[in-house]
Amino acid sequence: SLRRESSGELALYLNERRTDASSVRSLVEEIGLPSGEQQLSLAADQGIPYGEVVKVMDMLQSLGLKKISLDTRHTEGP
Questions:
Q1: Is residue 54 within 8 Å of residue 62, measured between CB atoms?
Q2: Do 2 and 53 form a contact (C-beta atoms < 8 A)?
Q3: What's the pLDDT at 37?
Q4: Interatomic CA distance for residues 58 and 18, integer angstroms
Q5: CA spacing 20 to 30 A to 1: which of 21, 59, 61, 76?
């Protein structure tokens, strides 16, 4: 998931473990996510710009994770 920390910084979490772009590859290998057919779900906090989410998706795809879905939640109107 992509989260905005209280400091305002964007943080990436994989299976609730904080990571970043430079170390996500080793974490994916450690967790043992197979590439290709493995389905991966990506969630992002409300208010995070779409472009930031796309950057994370591109990074995950570069690691061989091709089936990425976005978690969405419907909210009730006022």
A1: no
A2: yes
A3: 64
A4: 18
A5: 76
Q: CB neighbours of 22 closer than 8 A, spacing ≥ 6?
A: none
Cα 20 to the center of its chain, rounded Å: 10
Q: What is the pLDDT of residues 33-52, one digit of tens each?
A: 665 566 788 899 888 999 99
Instruction: Say how far apart CA 43 and CA 61 lie, in whole Å.
Output: 15
Specify the amino acid at residue 71.
D
Q: Which of 17, 60, 18 is nearest to 42 (CA)?
A: 60
Measure the CA–CA gap between 57 and 76, rounded to whole angstroms: 27
